[in-house]
Amino acid sequence: MTSSQSHRLASGGLIDRSASLNFRFDGRTFSGFQGDTLASALIANGVKLVGRSFKYHRPRGILTAGSEEPNALVELRTGARREPNTKATTAELYEGLEAASQNRWPSLRHDVMSVNQLFAPIFVAGFYYKTFMWPAKFWEAIYEPAIRRAAGLGRAAGVADPDHYDKAWAHCDVLIAGSGPAGLVAALAAGRSGARVILCEEDFALGGRLLSDGGTIDGVPAAEWLSRTLTELAAMPDVRIMTRTTLFGVYDGGTYGAIERVNDHLPSPPEHQVRQRLWRIVAKRCVVAAGALERPIVFAGNDTPGVMMASAMRTYVARYAAAPAKRIALFTNNEDGWRTVETALGAGLQIAAVIDARPDVSAAYRSLASKGGFPVLHGSVSGVDGGKDGVRKIAVSLAGGARAEVEADGLAVSGGWNPAVGLTSYHRGRPKWRDDIAAFVPDGAPPGMVAAGAANGDFGLGACLSQGFAAGVAAARDAGHSGKAGTAPVADDEAFSLTPLWHVTGKGKAFVDYQHDVTASDIELAQREGFESVEHLKRYTTLGMATDQGKTSNVAGLAIMAAVSGRSIPETGTTIYRPPYVPVAIGAFAGHHRDETFHATRLTPSHHWAMEQGAVFVDTGLWKRAQWYPRAGEKDWLESVTREVKAVRGGVGFCDVSTLGKIDVHGPDAGAFLDRVYINTFSNLAVGKARYGLMLREDGIVYDDGTTSRLAEDHYFLTTTTAKAGLVMQHLEFCRQVLFPELDVQLTSVSDQWAQFSIAGPKTRELLKEIVDPAEDLSNEGFPFMGAREVALRGGIKARLFRISFSGEMAFEISVPARLGDAMARNLMLAGAPFGVTPYGTEALGVMRVEKGHVAGPELSGTTTAADLGLGKMMSAKKDYIGRVMAGREALVAPDRQVVVGIKPTDKARRLRSGAHIIPKGQTPGPGNDQGYVTSVCFSPTSDQWIGLGLVERGRERIGEIVHAHDPLRGEDYDVELCNPVFYDPDGGRQRG
Amino acid sequence: MADFSWGSRSPLEHALVAGAHGARGTEAGVSLTEIRDFDLIQVMARRGQAAELAKAAKARFGVAAPNAPKAVQTSDAILIWSGPDQFFVLSKGGKHTMQTLAPALSGPASLSDQSHARALINIAGSKARIMLAKLSSIDLHPEVFPIGSAAATSMDHTSVTLWRGDDRPDGQAVFSLLVFATFAESLWHTMLDAAAEYGVEISHSEELA
C-alpha cells in the first residue's frame, strides 16, 4: 500500500516530482520524491513518531533537518548493510529504501520498555554508579548482562560489511567547509584569485541555508544567484566542489579529515565503486563556513513528536515542500524564529500563535500577526499536551503570570543560534562568549584556519557574503594567489534580536540532551552532588556524549549549570572539542586494509613455483614463506617435515632463503665500518671468504646475526635475519650518517635484487656439479668451508656461491638475480633429480637449526648477551664496537645468567613445548626458583625424539643435570635433561667435509 | 646432463593479466603498463666526492645528474634522484650496466645493481592522478609535479620511487613507479583495486616509454 503523501505541499520545494520513489519504514510502504531525505519523506507522509528515546523509551519525532539530529535515528538498510543510528535527516531517499525505528519492542507504537518512564525518578544522573555498586560480584553475572541488553541504540549488522571503502589524498591552497553563502563566496573569491580550492559540503545539495531561507543577493533571488555562482565555480578547473562530504577533523600541518559518502544515496554501490571514501586534505589555508545550529529551549514536553526547530520547519516547508504540521505554533526568543511564520504562511499553512519570550516584537512582525490573524503571546511554553501521535495542545505561561493554551499540531522552537565551533576548536581551542548573540564564537583557530559568516557568529546574509568573500581573498593571498577577485556580492542583514532563554521551569520532563535523555533536573542534580565542572557534568550525566556529540544540547546544558551554580556561562566554560564532527565508519578508516589486504605482503622469487609444488605457506612478518611441501598420503605436517629433514640429512634438499636481509656495504672504509657494528672483526676477512657476525645494541644486548662475505676489497655483502632486515638497514644507516660520518661507506639494500637458495645435504656437491660450469672447482680445496665467490652456471649466467651451512650439513647458498629465481628453483629440481633432491620449507629449516644448536629469533630475544648465546668468545678485545662497554655491566656478565643449553625429555616419547619453565628437580614451582625456560623445540628425526633449546641459569655448568619442566599453560610437568645444545654432528665434520 | 634454461620472470608475471580490468563501457581511465627487463644501477657518491661524481656523470650522460628530487631524461637513460648524492640510472638493452658504468663512475662512486630489485610500472590515463591520489600523499597537480619531478615516497606502506616522465604524444601525463620486487604483486593488486572504478587497461612492454 502506498500512502498519499498527505502532508506534501501542492507546489514548491527542491524536489523532483517526476521522480517518485517508494520506500519502507517499519514495514509500511510510502512514497517520496527524488531530492527528499528520509525525514522529509516521512514528514510528507504525515509520520510524526520515528523512534524511541535511549533511556526512557519516550516517543520521539524529527527535531532538525541536518546532521545535528538527536532523535530521528533509524536502522537503514537490511542484512549485512544494516546500519544503526543513521540520521533520517541526512539519509537521502532512494527507490526501495528500507528503514526501521530503533529501541522499541515489539513495535514503535507499543514499546514495552516505555515503562522505564514510570521509574524515571531512579534513572537520574549517575544511576549506574549509584545503583549497581553492591554486591560487587553481581556486576559481571547479573547487572552488566542486563544493562547490555537494555542499553544501546540500534543493532549492528553482525556480519562482515560487504562494501568497499577507500582513502585518498587531496591538496589545495584554500579548503572551505560549507557551501552556504559564506562558503560559496569564499570559494568564488579564492578561485578568482587563482587559488586551488576544495569546498566540502555535507549535504547533497549546495547552498546551505539559501536552499531553505532564500533571500535577495545582488538584487536577484537567492536561487538565481546560487545557480549563477555554481556555474561560475564549475568553470574554474582548480575549484573542486565535493558534496556529501563532511570535513570532520583538523590535524597537524594543515591536514584535514573528510568523509565522502560516495554511494550512501544508493541501495548499494555500483560495481567497482566504494561506499565511502576517507579524504586526507592538505591545505595551506582553511575557511570554516560551516554555519550555525539553531538551539532548542528546554521546557516540559519539549521532546514530543511535532516539536521541531523553527529553522528545520522552514527547511521542510521551503526546500522539501513537506508540512511538519498544518497548524503551527512558534516559540521563539529571537527575531529569526519569525521567519518560519513567514515561510509557513507563504506555503498556505495555518499559524496558531507565536509565543515570544521577548518583551518586544518588531512592528513588521506585529503587523504580520494581525494580517495573519494569529495571536502573539508574550511568555514561554511551559508544557506540551501530546504523545506518540504528536502535539495537540501547548501550555503557555504569559509574562504577567497568567496561563494560556494554544491548539496546534506542531510547535516550532527557536532559542537562538550556536555557531559551529567544532573545527575551529579541535586544536584545544576554547570558544569565547558573545553577549549580543548569547553564543560561543571561535576565539582563534588552528594555524591557517579562519571562520566566516554564521560560523563566526555573524548570522546576517549580508555579513556572511562580505565576510566569506574577504576570507576567500585573504586565504588565497596568504597561499600566494592574488588575482582579480572582483567585489563581494551584497545583501541586506536580517534583524537578529535575541533575549536569552534556556530553560522554562514547569511540571514534567524537560530535555536538554534528547539522544541521551538528559533532563534539566539531571543537570541540577549533578550540581547538587558536586559535579559542577563541565567536564564532570558531561561524564556524570552523559550530556553531549551520544553520537550527535551534543550539537543541540551542550550550550543549553552549560547555561542551566551556570544558572544553578550562580556563575555566568563563560565562567562555566565549555568542554574540550574533539573530532570527528560526525560519526565516521571504522571501515572508512580501514579503507583497503582489511582481510587478506590488511597489510602489504612480500613474495619470494620462487613463490609461484612453490605454489605449483603445493607448498603450505606461513606468514613471517610481511612474507609468505613455504613452510613445508606436503606430499600425497602424508597425514600431517610433522610427517612432511620429518621427510624433508631426512631427505636433506641423507641426500640433498634446497630452500628459498631470499627473505634474509641483504645489504651491499661499499667503500674504502667498509671493513672498518663493519668492525664497529659487529662484535667480531671483518676488516681482516679475505676477499672470497664469508664470516658469521654478531651485532649488539648500544646497551650490550644482542641485536642481530648473519653471515657477511667480502666480495671485493671495498665491497662486503652483509646478510641479516629475515625479521630484522629493515631494522638492521636503518641501524646501519644511522651508524653511517650519525655515528661515523668520517667513514667513507655506502650502503644499499639488495634484499630484493638476489634470489638466494640454501642447498644442503651430503649430495650438495653432486647437485652443484650438474648446474655449475665444469670449469669451477667445487672441491674442498677449491671451495673450502666459508668460501664465497662468483661462479658461472651452465646456460651462460653468473651466480654467487657461498659455502655456509645453517643445517649442519655440507651446504652452499647460491644467489642469482631475482628474476632468475623462479628458473633457479626449477633448475635445482632438474639438476638434483638424479639425487632425489627435496625442496624443504621453514619448518625443516628450523628443525635442522635446533638439531645443530644454532640460535635464532627465540634466543635472540632482546634479553640475551653474546655470552648467553655461547658466543662470548666472538667479542673482540682488540677493538671497539657498538655495545662493547655496556655489555660489560655487572648484571650482563653475572655468572648466574640464563644461558643457552640443550634440553631433552627423560621420557624419550614425550613431546616438548616451548615456554615451559625450568625449575630444580623436586622443588615446587614458583617465581623464587624459576631458572629459565624452553625457547625452541622440534621433533628431531635424527635423534628420533623431541629436543629443544632453552635459556637456563648457569646452564652450561649443568650439562647432564635432570631438572623439572613446568608448563602451567598446558598443565604439563615432566623431567628433562640439560645437555649440549649441539645435538647433531657436534664436531662439525659434516659441514666441513 | 639436464638442459637448463634461464628464463627471466618478472615479479608481476603471475599477477599481470593483460587486457581490460574493472569498469567497462567507456574508455579506460587508467592504463597500467609494466616495463620488463630493465637495467637499474644505483650510483652513490663516495665521501666528499659528490662534485667529482657530478662531473663524471655529466661526461657519461651528457646532462647533469639530478641533485634534488628530479628525473632527468638522457638520450638513452633516465637518471632519477634517490637520495642526497645518489641517483638511479634506468636504461634498457644493456647500455648502462654495472660493467659499462664502472669504468666511468666507480672512482667517485659506489655502484649497486638494483636491476632485479624493482618492478617498473607506468601509469597514465585521464584518471591517473585521481587514482594515484588513493595511494600517494604526493601532490601530483601539473603545476606542482611537472615533467621531471620525482619523489622517494611510499604507497600502501611500501617504499616506491615515483616520477613524471615525458607526456604521451596525446598530451597525457605518464607517471612511473619503481617498487621493490618482492612487494610488487601486493602493490599491483592494491593499484588494481584503486583503479577498478575508472576502468583499467593493463599491458606490459619491453620499451621504457
Provide a concise account of the structure shown:
Chain A is of the alpha+beta class and 993 residues long. In chain A, helix 4 links the parallel strand 8 (165-177) and strand 9. In chain A, helix 7 runs parallel beside helix 8.
Would you write up a description of this structure?
Chain B: This is Sarcosine oxidase subunit gamma. Chain B: It comes from Mesorhizobium qingshengii. Chain B: Pfam families: SoxG (PF04268). The complex is a heterodimer of chains A (993) and B (209). By secondary structure, chain A is α+β, with helices and mostly antiparallel strands. Chain A folds into 7 domains: 1-156, Ubiquitin-like (UB roll); 165-292 and 420-478, FAD/NAD(P)-binding domain (3-Layer(bba) Sandwich), CATH 3.50.50; 312-413, FAD/NAD(P)-binding domain (3-Layer(bba) Sandwich); 501-565, BFD-like [2Fe-2S]-binding domain (Arc Repressor Mutant, subunit A), CATH 1.10.10; 612-658 and 754-848, 2-Layer Sandwich (Gyrase A, domain 2), CATH 3.30.1360.120; 663-749, Aminomethyltransferase beta-barrel domains (Alpha-Beta Plaits), CATH 3.30.70.1400; 895-992, Aminomethyltransferase beta-barrel domains (Elongation Factor Tu (Ef-tu), domain 3, Beta Barrel). Chain A is built from 24 helices and 49 strands. In chain A, the strands form 12 sheets. In chain A, strands 8, 9, 12, 13, 14, 15 and 27 form a 7-stranded mixed β-sheet that branches. The longest helix of chain A has 18 residues, at 461-478. Chain A is elongated. The model of chain A has no long low-confidence stretch (mean pLDDT 95). Chain B contains 4 helices and 12 strands. Chain B is of the alpha+beta class and 209 residues long. The chains are: A alpha+beta (993), B alpha+beta (209). Chains A and B meet through strand 8, strand 30, strand 38 and helix 22 of A and strand 7 and helix 4 of B.
